[in-house]
Amino acid sequence: MTDHGPAEFVGNGPLFDGHVLHVVDTSVVVRWGPMLRQTLRALHDSGTPTSLVTNDRELPANLEGTGIECHAVEQLAGWHAWRLGERLLARFRHPPKIVHLWGATGLAWVQRWCRRNHVPVVVHAFGVTDVDQLTRPRVDVQTHVAVASDHLAELGSQRAGDVARPWTVIPPGVALPRQSVATRTGERTLAVLCACSLDRPDAAGVLIDAVAELRRTQRDVQAVLVGAGPGTDLIWRQIHTRAVHDCCAVLDEPRLWEKGLPGADVCVIPARQADLWLTPLLAMGLGKLVVASRDQPAQWFIEGQTAWQFTPGSAVELAYLLTRAADQPQHVQETTATAATYFDTHHSIGALLARLAALYRSIIDEGRAVSTAATEHSSGDKHP
Question: What's the rounded Cα separation, in Å, for the pair 329 and 219?
Fold first, then answer.
């Protein structure tokens, strides 16, 4: 998927006056790739010194030629990453003023390194897995947390208990690709895309059963599940058992959702997506119908406005909604129009950049205030 040039979202002067080191695990890149690429490019092109540490092979290649300082590593977690911060320090042209950890993978060494070097850290949570790690006792109270949705902020506050920590909501933002997007006219096969972790065959089974029901009623549909996970073989068995192998496929290559989304008609989220993906949000912006189970931990799934929703686990309801999508293009267009408006209002890349820059500045200002107070207190002790 081709990204917009970041110059379109950059004003006069740096978005943030200081070096920001971004740490990104490959699992986050798979789910949020376009947003990450655009954000890093825009920060850099605004004049904000920007560097990247990642175990992802493709992200540095995507940023080649931008001037962003990229450092590839094998692992961001586990014993391989135990002294990663110290090994990296000598490679930076400028010491970071803030470290931004996207997702919680690598939290241990990032916190330890930042504590030793008096560098503030932002951890950006994009799912329940991240929130779980951020509510464990070993997480520093001084660690600043950003979350992608209101629900995740509420969940984090509940699980954190007595630990005083602000959960700053910074919704995702992304610019739409320039290329034209196919729009269904009702005359061709209904193309369904599902991008998800393939670790829950029961969730995929809901979509497979729905496709089988559509085929039973002679509906013309093609469904592709894109992702990675230990359930791939079981999902293939379900497809063959339901005899839909000619119209349903599994691609164990999760990054392919970026290429498949522009040509899809419907983006399906067959079960609760605990770890959020950009896919359905970008689908809304592109004018694609989103059909999701009614238990999503993100506020951008709004019944009848941005998505059609069904009872969790109900393949019958999902099949009904897909039938409507094929037979009622006018109703589809009404929903996709309001979804696109919602996307433009709440999820622009410009809004994301402004929120990030504001958070970075507030963290630095807070650190200065604490340092000033400590100095004044020390001076008061020496000169009563």
Answer: 15
Residue 191 exposed, middle or buried by CB count within 10 Å (0-12, 13-18, 19+): middle
Q: Kindly tell me the sign of the dihedral angle through the C-alpha atoms of 86, 88, 91, 97.
A: negative
Tokens of 56: 């992802």
d(CA 78, CA 161): 27
Write phi, then psi, for 190 (nearest 5 degrees): -75, 120
Cα–Cα distance measured from residue 368 to residue 362, given in angstroms and rounded to the nearest whole number? 10
- Alpha-carbon distance 101 to 94, whole Å? 18
Q: SS3 for 108?
A: helix
Q: How far apart are CA 41 and CA 54, in angstroms?
A: 15
CA distance 23 to 31: 15
The per-residue pLDDT for range 167-218, each reduced to its tens digit, is 899 999 999 987 656 666 656 799 999 999 998 889 999 999 999 999 999 9
Q: CA–CA separation, 84 vs 25, rounded Å?
A: 14
Full-model pTM: 0.91
Strands 221-226 and 20-24: unpaired
